[in-house]
Specification:
about 35% helix; alpha/beta; about 25% strand; 19 strands; Rossmann fold; 2 domains; 15 helices; 8-stranded mixed beta sheet; 5-stranded parallel beta sheet
């Protein structure tokens, strides 16, 4: 995630809630991703965690009610006050956002340093509520959250958990991973991908031998998950259809479990059929070319003998079965024959009517399950090579798609 947050200025406004301590973990993670962090704390939040803790994590002075300085106020990088902090930010997060702070923001009240800083910034704004369930569900709070959404704020929804009051219910601060995913999306959404529907397949298909055993392959599903995260970050509506889910994903990515080729085929056609507009389909999954007819129960070696013979039948080519008019098709091809790999990839463009083919040559330098990848991209108009972490490669694939002769999404 380092290249997503590298040198991005994230301003975090912390209001009074027991969930304040969780923001230490959030800032720690964002710093590991090379983000620049500044913090503003309300007087109430300082009662839960001292500003010193956030200064240690962020590496910057925490702005509070008692330390505003107007020294060198003409510079956006000097002077610890609400104006300089507001101008500095690329994106602003209010977290945890208490019921009182949400109410004041909705009314435009600016009676403390947190609120004046928020009112003074033109950066994109997020709120992450955290409070008792009854307080969250009250009509006043719900009205105020709706007001903020109408003003352009994005809400990172709370979740159900054991709360500080001892009750179990909605109102817990969103998970830190989810907050970070939403900030990433807020920083990188672009016009091409915003609200485009995307279907990604991942992992290796699992073809049953009997009710216990199956045939599969070494596909880890990591590149598919990285694609899902990258395209979500760029603003797409993502559905990931996979046999495995190796990484934590944003909760707004639709995750659908699939096993056999038949299962993948049925579900991908259903997703394409239900799409509101022509979707992108990334066929990242390694689907079996042949599958046995599954046996009932469990095969016993006492009954089978020394040799188990499986009769396998050719499976349906799922990618080829998708009409090109119904989806933009991005094929993925894994080869170990390096001398002929490019020829096979180029042939796939026409044989399966793809808009793009991503070639992955498997070897000791590029093994299954690695965190890095090397991809060669082939289209009818250009070729390109990508190398790096699977997330970096995913962003490169997304960028290459933007170069295809595809009309802008209709609103």
């Amino acid at each position: 995630m380092q290249h997503i947050f590298h040198n991005k200025n994230i301003l975090i406004l912390i209001s009074g809630s027991i969930a304040v301590y969780k923001m230490l973990e959030c800032i720690s993670q964002l710093k590991k991703y090379n983000a620049n962090i500044k913090v503003v704390m309300s007087e109430e939040s300082c009662k839960f965690v001292t500003p010193l803790s956030f200064e240690a994590m962020s590496g910057n002075l925490v702005l509070t009610e008692h330390n505003q300085s107007w020294y060198n106020q003409s510079s956006a990088t000097n002077g610890a006050n609400h104006i300089t902090y507001a101008k500095w930010a690329d994106i602003v997060l209010v977290a945890p956002a208490s019921a009182n702070t949400i109410a004041k923001i909705a009314c435009g009240i600016a009676d403390n340093v947190l609120l004046t800083t928020l009112l003074a910034t033109s950066a994109k704004k997020f709120i992450a509520p955290a409070m008792n369930t009854t307080m969250l569900c009250s009509p006043q709070t719900q009205r105020n959250i709706t007001t903020l959404k109408n003003l352009g704020f994005e809400c990172i929804e709370s979740h159900s958990s054991l709360l500080a009051c001892g009750e179990v219910g909605d109102g817990a601060l969103a998970e830190i991973d989810e907050i970070i995913f939403r900030l990433a999306r807020g920083l990188h959404t672009n016009v091409f991908w915003q609200d485009r529907e995307v279907v990604i397949t991942g992992g290796g298909s699992k073809e049953s031998i009997d009710e216990v055993r199956f045939i599969s392959n070494h596909s880890s599903g990591k590149q598919a998950s990285a694609l899902a995260i990258a395209l979500y970050t760029l603003g797409a509506k993502v559905s990931l259809l996979s046999s495995v889910f190796p990484t934590t994903l944003p909760k707004h990515i639709t995750q659908i479990k699939a096993q056999s080729v038949t299962d993948f085929n049925h579900k991908i056609h259903e997703l394409i059929h239900n799409a509101e507009s022509k979707p992108f389909v990334f066929m990242t999954a390694a689907l079996a070319d042949y599958a046995p007819k599954p046996q009932k129960n469990k095969l016993k070696k006492e009954q089978v003998g020394d040799i188990l013979t499986l009769q396998c039948f050719k499976t349906q080519d799922v990618l080829a079965s998708i009409p090109p008019e119904s989806a933009y098709k991005i094929g993925f091809k894994a080869e170990i024959d390096e001398s002929n790999a490019k020829h096979y990839a180029k042939a796939m463009l026409d044989s399966k009517q793809c808009d793009m083919v991503c070639l992955n040559v498997i070897g000791t330098h590029n093994p299954f399950g690695a965190d890095n990848n090397t991809i060669n991209i082939f289209t009818h108009d250009f070729t390109q090579s990508l190398n790096g972490s699977k997330l970096e490669v995913a962003f490169g694939i997304a960028k290459a798609c933007e170069s295809l002769k595809i009309p802008p999404k209709m609103s």
